[in-house]
Amino acid sequence: MEMFWGLAVSAILLGCTYTLVAIGFSLFFGVMDVVVFCCGDIAIFGSFAIIGAYAVAQSAGLFGVFPFWVCVILLILIGAVFCAAWGLITHQLSIKPFQNSSELMPLLSTIAMGTVIKEGLGLLFKPVVNTISAAFDRESAVTVVSGRNPQGFPSLLLPDGTVGARYLTIIVITAVILLLLFLFLNKTKMGMSMQAISQNKELSLMTGINVSRVIIITFLIGGVMLAVSGFLVGSYQKLMSFDDGAMYGAKGFSAAVVGGLRNTWGAVIGGMLLAFVEVFVSGYIPKGTAYSSIAAFVIVVIFIVFKPDGIIGDKSVEKV
Amino acid sequence: MNGTVDNTLEISGLDTSYGRIPMLRGVSLNVPSGQVCCVLGANGAGKTTLVKAILNMVKADRGSMKLEGKNMDSWPTHKRVKSGIAISAAAVGTFHKMTVEDNLKMGAYYIDDSLLQERLGEIYQSFPVLRERLRQKAGTLSGGERTMLAIARAVVNKPKLLILDEPSLGLAPIMIEEVFEIIRRLRATRQMSILLVEQNAVKALSVAGCGYVIQKGAIAFSGTADALGRSEFVENPVM
Ligand SMILES: Nc1ncnc2c1ncn2[C@@H]1O[C@H](COP(=O)(O)OP(=O)(O)OP(=O)(O)O)[C@@H](O)[C@H]1O
Ligand SMILES: [Mg+2]
To answer: What is the distance between the alpha carbons of residues A127 and A48, in angstroms, rounded to a whole number?
Structure first.
């Protein structure tokens, strides 16, 4: 039983990180009708922005000047600004130019954007060079210098607290973000406009919504969500690799599909479902770890076949 | 139809195209203030294209448009709506996952919160069908109710120019009667000018003061509704 609860906690934590990425996918899909494949990479970009900003802050002695929690909030804000900016860049460079071409174009171009982010991070973040192995082995020297090693993520979340407290904080942060998002989407004019565009773009134009402005704001907000998820992943994993975004994006996308792409709550349920399957398969099935991701993707395939509209479904689709 | 200031909408020499295929060709059209003008035309003649061009949802290749004498060629869609053009097109559908009330509120996008309740109250008076269904998801409305919602969503703005794109589409005769009753009421207030796009010529002419016929993207007739009613376009059903 103890194992069960341990696994359940891990699953919820993993689910939190998937959920936020999945929501990124569903927000973008809602307003643009395109799958923005670089969501995972943008989130990891956020983690690395925080790693980088942390190093700068440390060498500038910022941690001595301000209280620790102020520095942490500043770091997260920096991550958020970077990701929001990158969300915007993604929209301007790899989605907007292809608005009137085939639907496959933005798929390709966002995958390309993901590669740019990934490789950029790999080049930018040179790990502490392991001189011994580099001296012995030329090949690994090359790999090391081009930045293929994982980076440590700074302990920003309750560095003196217990692991349990840290995990609880991750869950609480996710819950608060989801609550804020819910209020934003349903109680503000901007949020309602996003929903309107997602449901009927032509009518949104006719009602006078400034659609291109709402789209830009969606990408900014989505970028901030992804930055938070990058922060949570970093705090949870402790070690970040520049190419984590690919798998992470694939999981977030799968969660969004399971939840029904346009549906924010579906993304939450999808993220949790995927994480539970993954964690429990690796926990209970002997040598299951190797298959955990496969099991998660099998779930996705099952959903695509049997419930293509997602877990919550969309029963009121209009007959025009 | 003369005098510049008296026209709510003035279009002159409008050309549009879909890709490289020309659609509207040299369309000129006026809607005098406080009047109802109808635009008749067969399927595919370019009526909806004209409506969308008025809102800049379809780009004009040539020509110019004025709203109450002000040139609006450079205005994006949202600015045209904000400046007083409202379109009701049932065929475009609703925000199907939102309630009827939220659909109306989205329609009243540029109305101040302080005014909104009053305006909605007026709408519920004129559209009792909707008042009974405020909490219902718009996607579950019947075709007739959806048409009512589409009209209400535009009228709530009290626009300078109300454009109705085929409001009778797919409705039973009794519903069509109700829709035209609403148009008559709106006309009687003389608060807004109306551009009524219809295939039902007899019905449209019964409320309109002036009329246009579009054929293959060009204006084939323009004049008073009476003249249009007596012309070959209405007498001869093959338009
Ligand atoms: N987005 C588009 N791309 C290409 N062609 C289009 C597009 N929209 C409309 N058309 C074409 O332009 C022509 C005119 O269409 P439009 O919708 O203006 O006709 P309409 O007069 O409103 O007809 P109806 O009475 O059937 O509504 C049609 O032949 C249509 O196929
Ligand atoms: Mg039409």
So the answer is: 12
